[in-house]
Design goal:
The chain is α/β, with parallel strands linked by helices and about 400 residues long. The protein has one domain: Aldolase class I (TIM Barrel). It is built from 15 helices and 13 strands. The protein is globular.
Length: about 400
């Protein structure tokens, strides 16, 4: 395998470990757990396929720190050691080719669908602008402290299982993001108000994990560059949060943006000036690179090997995050390491049904179905088959919800 591509170059993290290359399979919800959030053997098959494809870092889909609060059906929840053996098999498969596996830790807060959660929690009782979600109840101080401890407990179990690190999901409108946003956090205590107070939740989570697991375990964050909403979390505030976490020693910062209310991360909204460079959040990443020492990763929009290498070579980013391209072609990293001119065939999916397209349901669910195929040892499909794919995706989305309902009945 040729190592002439900058994508193939290793990078050392602050925790002391080294990623074998600059390509990361970024987080995508697998939706293959049981209705109770239990781990299954299919995770081993799925992540072995991605490991064999060449990615140096594999970040899992959402791992819930509280099984009562899930972001979608069939998401993994790790609260105790009941699945420790299966977690070890998962981790070993992901690391079989010398790469690392990090688990993305999440609590969805109020962004937990009503068919899964009859009483979602949030920093403040501010409802989401979607009929998919029940208005939340405001968290008490004790509940906030409990959630912080849950993040650390889940991280500790995963460390024991052989995972190399965790990524805190601070983007896309989930609980950490809700605490950071002045639109969603109206608290007047130490957890709300000024940016320093709004970031206390994520900072305390980070410090608690470090205290329990030490400095040799990888800890990163996925953070919005902005909420892209009036009065919400701004780029200036995102910069300050990144600088604070950088000073504390965080290992990796992944930049994203948007939420269910404004899913720019899935729709791929871009300024005309950045389309040639492909990545959605590259301009902010370049600014961030001037202010922090931690490695920066950008996920979203990268399709051509040329654009990925230019982003690395220019110093705009340190690591390339790929999601959907690695669903339709898990072998893409190896192809890029051994030859030039590779690109992904991934294109935006549109159903023509505005409500579905606005919520990006098709974008999420069609790729979830291909992930399921890989986990079953099958080849993923590479093209959407019009209305037939829409019907199949919506049926599988409904079926996953019914599976969870039966378990909780």
């Amino acid at each position: 395998m040729s190592n002439s591509s900058s994508l193939a170059q290793p990078i050392k993290l602050r925790s002391g470990s080294t990623l074998i290359n600059r390509v990361c399979k970024s987080a995508m919800n697998e939706t293959i757990a049981t209705g109770e959030g239990r781990v299954v053997r299919e995770f081993e098959v799925l992540y072995r396929a991605w490991a064999e494809g060449g990615s140096g870092l594999l970040v899992t889909g959402n791992v819930m720190v509280d099984k009562r609060h899930a972001n979608e059906p069939l998401a993994v929840a790790v609260e105790d050691k009941r699945d420790l053996l299966l977690l070890r098999l998962w981790a070993n498969a992901a690391k079989s080719q010398g790469g690392q596996i990090w688990a993305q830790l999440n609590h969805p807060g109020k962004q937990s669908p009503k068919f899964l959660n009859e009483q979602p929690l949030a920093p403040s009782a501010v409802p989401l602008a979607s009929d998919m979600f029940i208005p939340p109840r405001e968290l008490t101080e004790c509940e906030i402290l409990d959630i912080i401890e849950r993040f650390a407990t889940t991280a500790s179990i995963l460390q024991e299982a052989g995972f190399d690190g965790v990524q805190l999901h601070g983007a896309h409108g989930y609980l950490i993001s809700q605490f950071l946003s002045p639109n969603h956090n109206k608290r007047e205590d130490q957890w709300g108000g000024s940016l320093e107070s709004r970031m206390r939740f994520v900072v305390t989570i980070y410090k608690t994990i470090r205290e329990k697991l030490g400095n040799e375990f990888g800890v990163g964050i996925k953070l919005n560059s902005s909420d892209f909403q009036k009065g919400g979390f701004t780029q200036e505030e995102s910069m300050e949060v990144c600088k604070a976490l950088d000073e504390l020693g965080i290992d990796l910062i992944e930049i994203s943006g948007g939420s269910w209310e404004n899913p720019v991360n899935r729709r791929g909204d871009q300024k005309e000036s950045t389309k040639k460079r492909e990545a959605y959040f590259l301009e902010f990443a370049e600014q961030l690179k001037q202010n922090v020492e931690a490695p920066i990763m950008v996920t979203g929009g990268f399709r051509s090997q040329k654009a990925m290498e230019e982003a690395i070579d220019s110093g705009a980013v340190d690591i390339i995050g790929l999601a959907r391209p690695l669903v339709v072609d898990p072998e893409l990293p190896n192809k890029m390491f051994s030859s030039k001119g590779n690109s992904s065939s991934v294109k935006p999916i549109s159903t023509g049904i505005k409500k579905i397209d606005d919520m990006a349901i098709m974008e999420i669910s069609w790729y979830s179905d291909q992930i399921r195929r890989i986990s079953e040892g099958k080849r993923p499909k590479t093209k959407v088959r019009g209305i037939f794919s829409v019907i199949n995706v919506l049926y599988n989305f409904w079926k996953r919800g019914q599976t969870v309902k039966r378990v909780r009945a």
